[in-house]
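dumping this here so i dont lose it
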């Protein structure tokens, strides 16, 4: 049985997920640590990886705990396309969030505000993303497949070999230019299914300011996970 004791004495549950891959991956969740490993890697090797990565796991465990605590409190604002919008809770208002000049107005009970805001953001992404897509997709070196929304917690987008592209709905909170960068990034994968020099050259052709956008995501991306 795998075991890891963190500096605060916590012993998180260790979940092993076996997949067809060459390397061992680690994902830190709110309640457990997940090891993604090839089928034939023995538990002794996985325990060694846990021990070697203990400091890294601890840092990410603390971050997850802080995010969970923040989610437990009622939010006061939400980011919409790069601007901070006040959240106005009025128990007498409609359950469905309504965007007004004064902010995003939500009715009903306070305990499920985050879930309803996430649902609103998902719907807004489904409405807005195709507009950006229609502008950038024709520039791709290869015709893309279907555009889909993703709820991934570790990726902003993904490109399947058959041309399907998924975009994380949480990007609706970021400035529109950031969404354009992620679209360009995934469209570049239609030509290069890697992150080679050629891939970044193709990304630059589609979106010249990709370095600025990537830096913004690395700096500000965590705030986009406050909902959902």
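and the seq i came up w/
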């Amino acid at each position: 049985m795998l075991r890891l004791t963190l500096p605060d004495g916590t012993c998180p549950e260790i979940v092993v997920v076996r997949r067809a891959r060459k390397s061992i991956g680690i994902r830190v969740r709110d309640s457990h640590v997940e090891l993604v490993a090839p089928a034939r890697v023995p538990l002794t090797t996985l325990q060694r990886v846990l021990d070697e990565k203990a400091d890294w796991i601890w840092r990410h465990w603390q971050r997850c705990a802080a995010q969970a605590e923040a989610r437990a409190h009622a939010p006061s604002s939400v980011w919409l396309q790069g601007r901070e919008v006040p959240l106005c809770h009025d128990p007498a208002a409609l359950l469905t969030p309504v965007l007004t000049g004064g902010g995003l107005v939500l009715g009903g009970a306070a305990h499920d505000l985050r879930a309803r805001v996430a649902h609103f953001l998902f719907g807004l992404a489904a409405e807005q993303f195709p507009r950006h897509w229609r502008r950038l997709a024709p520039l791709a070196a290869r015709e893309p497949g279907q555009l889909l929304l993703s709820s991934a917690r570790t990726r902003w987008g993904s490109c399947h070999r058959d041309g399907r592209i998924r975009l994380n709905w949480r990007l609706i909170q970021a400035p529109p230019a950031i969404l354009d960068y992620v679209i360009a990034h995934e469209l570049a994968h239609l030509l290069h299914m890697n992150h080679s020099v050629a891939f970044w050259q193709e990304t630059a052709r589609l979106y010249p300011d990709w370095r600025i956008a990537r830096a913004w995501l690395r700096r500000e991306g965590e705030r986009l996970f406050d909902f959902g």
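Helices lie at 43-52, 54-72, 113-136, 176-189, 197-206, 210-220.
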